[in-house]
Amino acid sequence: MLATGRTLRTVASDIAAVTTRLPLTVALAVVACTLVALAAPAQASTTCQAGGACAIGDVGPGGGIVFIAPGTTGNSSGKFFEAAPNTWNGSAPDGTAQWCNATNASVAGLGTVIGTGITNSASIATACTSVGTDDAAEYVRSRTIGGLTDWFLPSQDEMLALYGQRAYLTGAYATNQADSDAARYLTSSQQSDYVVGFSNASGAYMQGSGAPGTIALISKAYPFAVRPVRMFTAAVASSVSTAPASPADILQQVGRLHGQVCSSLSLPALDPAGVSGGWQDSWAEWAVPVTGGPVCTRMLHYSARSASWMLI
Predict the structure, then answer these.
(1) Cβ distance 49 to 69 under 8 Å?
(2) Residue 17 has pLDDT above 70, yes or no
């Protein structure tokens, strides 16, 4: 294998030292050893989902879409947040649940800012005596999504932050856009303007609703859409994109026998996946001592864009 930092010139010198006076079949074996691994280079970093650095728009450890980063305005938690796929409840898009069917009474101590959803959900689950989808917070907290069990009902500002990253809410992460009620999502927050007989649960209008990106007073005993979220710690991905390092271009040469036509040469043992032929007549010092001699040669280049080798 070609060692890191080696150049084509030094490799050619090594080949010359080894292959002089060797039969063609042996020379081929030596040249084959100069090939850098003919496969995609190792990834430079681990993905966010696998525990690496994260950025908004990445798939998170729980299979959700990352929508809040430590640097997001209003986030003092120092954590990332991910929103579950819309199949979390068994079918897309999302499921519906009631904030608390048992009572319209306010739950003390609930917050609205980013970072309060997790404690809000715990407080609601304790205060509400309903079960299953009649208690959205407890229902979400009881779910295992992406192999993780620390999901919760987002706070008002966490839900608005999710709306702010709606460009990423496509495919498996798209919100319900069927009509205004189905596009209104429960939060774990309450509003201060309590209305008797109606309650003060806080709902967020999402895409497809009449007033997307806004908060409204909603009934605690009526089913609305639900999207679980979770918070987690991870390194912050660099804002500068750095592509994985690609192998250097590779020069392949084999001695050309008398009367041999390089363009017709077939050496499958030296072909990387998807590449064949491309041999051209040339000359190399190593082919014949002192004077040099005829060879068949070709140059390989690894394209990071297509993750494959090609002839140049």
Answers:
(1) no
(2) no
